[in-house]
Amino acid sequence: MNIVELKDVCKSYPAFSLKNVSFSLESGRITGFIGRNGAGKTTTIKSMLNLIHTDSGEISYFGMPLAGNETEIKQRIGYSTGTVSWYPRKTIREIISVTKSFYRSWDEDAYRRYMELFALDEGKKPIELSEGMKVKFNLLLALSHRAEVLILDEPTSGLDPFSRDELLELFKTLRGHGATILFSTHITSDLERCADDIVYISSGQIRAACSREDFMRRFGRPDETLEELFLRLEREA
User: Fold this and answer.
1) What is the DSSP-derived secondary structure letter of residue 101?
2) Burial of 110 (0-12, 13-18, 19+ CB in 10 A)
3) Domains of the chain
């Protein structure tokens, strides 16, 4: 079942355009959204969240168009960047006390479970957290209101190798719990670690949207790694 669908999404800026972006996310799978910096990953994600107004196209979640159902849909999805944009000198406890009031599906038991899983301290402030812990804090907020879809923009950016591995293992755990995950990256090893599917964007256009195995079969050469494949496609673009 496709839980998220984009059809012919377009957005034009003076120096860049998204051109008829179409792809879907299947329930319970991890999709890696790959492309070089400036390819259109963040613009696409912002379109998916109605953080920018598209020129044309359709975006739907759970069979409902985003237009006209944004409040309902955003109760059921979670969004995270690689950084925390919360008040840096407020404690996690204080931030949570405000944030949970926005979600009718806030699950206090889930919040406590993920606090323990992520080894977060309610008395800490975002300014005191490592980069890896900041990403986990953002995920905590999404997971505690039982988000069915997680949309993550460069979540591993700036993480040390240990924290990156830890986060990618967490993605696989969340998939096992039924979560649907889209994460953007330009790091091919992230995809090799956990992605079921790949959406590849170049110069504002979707070049491929398929399973990782199909991507390698359709575009790869014998004995070529995913990184080598991606670099070759970019050179040929």
Assistant:
1) G
2) middle
3) 2-84+147-236 (3.40.50.300)
Mean pLDDT value of segment 132-142? 83
| Tens of pLDDT, residues 172-200 | 988 998 899 999 988 888 899 999 999 99
- The tokens describing 193, both together, are 């670690």
- Using DSSP, state whether 15 is helix, strand or coil: coil
Q: How many CA atoms lie within 13 A of 49 on its CB side?
A: 20
Instruction: Single out the residue of 99, 102, 95, 46 nearest to residue 71, CA to CA.
Output: 102
Cβ–Cβ under 8 Å, residues 142 and 177: no
Integer Rg of the chain from CA:
18
SS3 content of the chain, % helix, strand, coil (to 5): 40, 25, 35
pTM of the full structure? 0.89
Residue with the two structure tokens 């494949």: 229
Is the separation of the CB atoms in 126 and 137 below 8 Å? yes
Closest CA to 64 of 52, 56, 76, 53: 76
CA dihedral 45, 49, 53, 58 (to 10 degrees): 90
Number of Cβ within a 10 Å radius of residue 60: 18
- Whether 179 and 139 have beta carbons less than 8 Å apart is answered as no
Q: How far apart are CA 204 and CA 230, in angstroms?
A: 16
67-110 tens-digit pLDDT: 999 999 999 999 887 665 678 889 999 999 999 999 988 999 98
Question: What does the block give as tokens for 207?
Answer: 């070049």
Residues written for the chain: 237
